[in-house]
Amino acid sequence: MKNRILLFSFVTALFAVVSMPAFAQGTETKQEQKWEKQAAKADEKRLSDAKDLRNDTKADSKAAKADLKEAKRVEKDAKHARREAKKAARMEAKTQQNRIDADKQAEKAARATEKSNNN
Prior knowledge:
Elements: H1 2-26, H2 30-118
């Protein structure tokens, strides 16, 4: 019987000791509440800054895509112009060769005419 009373007292005291810090933590001091409010405001500010950064990044991304598109268009136009210039150069060379050939032919014809006139 004595053991039972001692055991019951020990369990009751142990429960009281274990549960006491839980009750003490349940109430916050004004300083803790103030700190919690400051932490909440800081979290809101960080969240707002993150949203602003995301929006800025999106805007920068759109601008970069537009610049890339314009650069691709300019490069395509330059490639086309190079191709056209190359084609024009080939045609000019061909025309020059045709002129040379025509001059040679005219010279031959003039010699032949001169020769036939001399005979």
